[in-house]
């Protein structure tokens, strides 16, 4: 799915629509070095920009682990075009981590919502 309204919004939509949980390692989310530098110069957290920023065109999707492994083995030249950032489970919750350390909770108030329940 399109993540142009931020990664957090895309994760919530994927998990909710599919009835699954997601475990995402924020250390593996691709963020350009220039973005990290600019965020640091503004005393901002680049992870917040990745989670809640908008207008960056990225796609987020889920495929079975066996398919991922087979695809990486048979298409090595294309393997760097996609990045594995997490796994799907049956927890019905989204868990953000930094490796083995707990990460932040998703704050839906920071995401852009086209339609809100409280209009």
Please provide a written account of the structure:
The chain is an alpha+beta fold. It has one domain: Phosphoribosyl-aminoimidazole Synthetase, Chain A, domain 2, CATH 3.90.650. It contains four helices and four strands, in the order H-E-H-H-H-E-E-E. It has a four-stranded mixed beta sheet. Strand 3 and strand 4 (101-102) form a beta hairpin. The protein is globular, with a radius of gyration of 15 Å.
The Rg value, from CA coordinates, equals 15 Å
- Full CATH superfamily name: PurM-like C-terminal domain
Q: List the secondary-structure elements in sequence, H or E.
A: HEHHHEEE
Question: Architecture in CATH?
Answer: Alpha-Beta Complex
Number of strands: 4
The chain-level mean pLDDT equals 87
Strands ordered across the widest β-sheet: 2-1-3-4
Sum up the overall morphology in one term. globular
Coarse structural class: alpha+beta
Helical proportion? 25-40%
* Oligomeric category: single chain
| CATH class descriptor name | Alpha Beta
Model regions low in confidence, pLDDT < 50 over at least 5 residues: none
- The number of domains is 1
Distance between the termini: 26 Å
- The percentage of residues in β strands lies in 5-15%
- At the fold tier of CATH, the topology name is Phosphoribosyl-aminoimidazole Synthetase, Chain A, domain 2
Q: Major sheet: size, sense and barrel closure? A: 4 strands, mixed
> What's the tally of helices?
4
């Amino acid at each position: 799915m399109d993540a142009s309204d931020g990664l957090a919004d895309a994760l919530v939509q994927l998990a909710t629509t599919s009835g699954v949980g997601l475990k995402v390692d924020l250390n593996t989310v691709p963020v350009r070095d220039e973005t990290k530098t600019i965020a640091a110069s503004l005393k901002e957290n680049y992870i917040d920009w990745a989670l809640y920023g908008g207008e960056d065109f990225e796609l987020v999707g889920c495929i079975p682990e066996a398919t991922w492994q087979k695809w990486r083995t048979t298409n090595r030249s294309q393997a760097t075009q996609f990045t594995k950032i997490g796994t799907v489970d049956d927890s019905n919750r989204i868990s953000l981590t930094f490796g083995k350390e707990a990460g932040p909770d998703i704050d839906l108030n920071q995401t852009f919502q086209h339609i809100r329940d409280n209009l």
